[in-house]
């Protein structure tokens, strides 16, 4: 497996940056039929994430803009991240209209935005919900952005899965991996078995035949990163609580949490280096470890 994943996509993004699959998703969401040539994929890689690109954006003609990010859990800062991404996309779109477009007296016509978050993981919440940017302002202010959140786990019974076979196939692929891991299989074996199951049952057949190696590598990275992040959180919390109890609550807890997170970060970096053959900087990039903490960690590796 190659070590440098900086420019690699998640499986979700690999699927839905294909115009035909984006069209199917749009039709599942809206019930409106469109032609493949009406779909324009916008290159948004890296706006939301630096380590693995989950984001997909596409326009349907000049009428609708979608920003979509798939995550294993729901991030409460998603409206802020979507705002930053939307600003970048609108800036590009307006520049494409010409240098003087923004200075015209006549109002510009822009694609109307929709912001979606699909969650598919152990901590996903049932059903559909919303997140609002105004919550970051304490419910005040004149700016609002609404993110619609969909639980797309295979067992969720989400109606959208029935309306979009490609999304349902992806959800089943993830479900098969999770079942394999629950049975004690290694990540690699569970992923290979899940891909084989889908191909034998005519699920995402063309995609999995065309991108078999890329899908395996992307899923290995995603699962290893998710496991490392979860282990880091649990290890840091457990050690922090233990140290805090030893030293007396308030200040001891703060110091204990700091020490616990340092140890948890070290273990998480080592796990990613071992499992994914990353170098220290790549592993710390994937874990979003602040630059000021990296020298101390690297000295302990």
Please describe what this structure looks like.
The protein has helices at residues 11-16, 19-30, 78-96, 159-163, 165-182, 187-200, 205-210, 212-247, 249-276, 280-286, 291-300; strands spanning 39-42, 55-60, 64-71, 112-119, 128-132, 146-151. The chain is an alpha/beta fold. The protein has a 6-stranded mixed sheet with strand order 1-2-3-4-6-5, with helices on both faces. The protein is globular, with a radius of gyration of 21 Å.
Percent range for helical residues? Answer: 40-55%
What's the number of domains? 2
Rounded mean pLDDT is 79
Write down the Rg.
21 Å
Based on DSSP secondary structure assignment, what is the total number of beta strands? 6
Q: How does the major sheet shape up?
A: 6 strands, mixed
Q: Label the structural class.
A: alpha/beta
Order of helices and strands: HHEEEHEEEHHHHHHHH
User: Any idea what the shape is?
Assistant: globular
């Amino acid at each position: 497996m190659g070590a440098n994943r900086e420019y690699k996509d998640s499986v979700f993004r690999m699927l839905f940056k294909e115009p035909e699959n984006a069209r199917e998703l749009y039709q599942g969401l809206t019930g409106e039929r469109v032609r493949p040539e009406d779909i324009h994929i916008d290159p948004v890689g890296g706006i939301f994430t630096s380590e693995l690109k989950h984001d997909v954006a596409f326009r349907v003609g000049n009428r609708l803009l979608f920003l979509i990010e798939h995550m294993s859990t729901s991030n409460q800062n998603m409206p802020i991240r979507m705002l930053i991404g939307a600003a970048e996309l609108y800036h590009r779109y307006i520049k494409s209209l010409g240098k003087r477009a923004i200075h015209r007296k006549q109002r510009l016509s822009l694609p109307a935005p929709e912001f979606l978050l699909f969650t598919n993981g152990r901590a996903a919440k049932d059903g559909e919900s919303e997140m609002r940017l105004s919550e970051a302002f304490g419910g005040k202010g004149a700016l609002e952005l609404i993110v619609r959140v969909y639980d797309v786990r295979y067992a969720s019974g989400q109606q959208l899965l029935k309306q979009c076979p490609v999304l349902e196939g992806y959800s089943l692929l993830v479900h098969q991996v999770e079942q394999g891991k629950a049975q004690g299989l290694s990540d690699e074996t569970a992923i290979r078995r899940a891909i084989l199951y889908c191909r034998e049952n005519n699920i995402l057949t063309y995609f999995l035949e065309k991108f078999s190696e890329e899908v395996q590598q992307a899923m290995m990275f995603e699962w290893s990163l998710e496991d490392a992040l979860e282990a880091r959180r649990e290890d840091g919390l457990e050690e922090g609580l233990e140290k805090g109890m030893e030293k007396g609550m308030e200040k001891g807890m703060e110091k204990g949490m700091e020490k616990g997170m340092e140890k948890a970060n070290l273990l998480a970096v080592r796990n990613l280096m071992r499992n994914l053959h990353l170098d220290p900087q790549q592993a710390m990039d994937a874990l979003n470890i602040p630059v000021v903490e990296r020298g101390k960690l690297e000295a302990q590796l």
